[in-house]
Design a protein that fits this description.
The protein is mainly alpha-helical. It has two domains: about 70 residues, Orthogonal Bundle (Arc Repressor Mutant, subunit A); about 150 residues, Up-down Bundle (Four Helix Bundle (Hemerythrin (Met), subunit A)), CATH 1.20.120.530. Helix content is about 70%, strand content about 5%. It is built from ten helices and three strands; from the N terminus they run αβααββααααααα. The longest helix is centred in the last third of the chain and has 31 residues. The protein is globular. It starts with 12 loop residues before the first helix and ends with a helix.
């Protein structure tokens, strides 16, 4: 999976860093970089055929999602998968942040935002839902885009920083990657109700619908956790 440095291809530093990030994300989500294993910046740079700088930048981005962890003097390691309790804690944190995002974003939503949210829902409907990252990636990206559009449109830098720190979507899909997308129909219906609140210009309804959505995701995640544990034991 070599990625050539920009010198010979006219690729900008940012584009290169994005490519390296994508390569590492795929390896993490598919489990090729296993939980707990060290990630050598120099070794990964050699494998991808790039300089250490874009690898370092990509790992810093991934650290913000919680997918890798950095320890002083020891470098980066792949973070362990969430436990069921940690996943429940993540959903509780989302219940604090995302309803507030929905209320504020809806307060000043315009036609462009509602159109973008509607497109994200259409992309959810069309996306594959298989067990591997390559199969459910488009679904995950559309799901993440829907929530990120709302977080960014809340126009509150501190709430956005809190949302970014959670890495909620990527962590959830990483945990259940082997199961594929199990709750698409529920999620699409819940996203649609949030969109309808935005279209109606009703911030309080948008807040309530976001609460219902995250609570639904939490309940379904707990069920998936039980299925996952059952499959591991068998």
């Amino acid at each position: 999976m070599a990625i050539k440095d920009p010198a010979s291809r006219g690729v900008s530093r940012q584009v290169l860093a994005d490519h390296v990030y994508e390569a590492l994300l795929i390896a993490l989500m598919d489990g090729r970089l296993e939980a707990g294993t060290p990630v050598s910046i120099d070794g990964m740079a050699r494998e991808l055929d790039v300089s250490p700088t874009p690898v370092r930048e990509a790992l810093a981005r991934l650290e913000a999602t919680g997918m890798v962890r950095r320890t002083a003097l020891r470098g980066y390691r792949v973070a362990p998968l969430f436990t069921a309790d940690e996943l429940a804690d993540l959903m509780d944190a989302r219940l604090v942040i995302e309803p507030a995002n929905a209320f504020m974003a809806c307060s000043h939503a315009d036609a462009e935002l509602t159109a973008q949210l509607a497109q994200a829902i259409d992309d959810l409907k069309a996306a594959p839902r298989g067990p591997s990252f390559s199969e459910f990636r488009a679904y995950w990206e559309a799901d993440e885009r829907f929530h990120r559009l709302i977080a960014e449109s809340a126009d509150n830098q501190f709430l956005l920083s809190a949302y970014n720190a959670l890495g909620g979507q990527v962590q959830r899909f990483r945990f259940f990657g082997g199961l594929g997308v199990t709750d698409a129909d529920f999620a699409i219906a819940e996203h649609t109700e949030i969109l309808q609140a935005f279209e109606a210009g009703d911030p309080e309804l948008a807040r309530q619908k976001m609460i219902a959505h995250i609570e639904g995701v939490k309940q379904r995640s707990q069920h998936d956790s039980e299925v996952h544990d059952s499959e591991v034991r068998s």
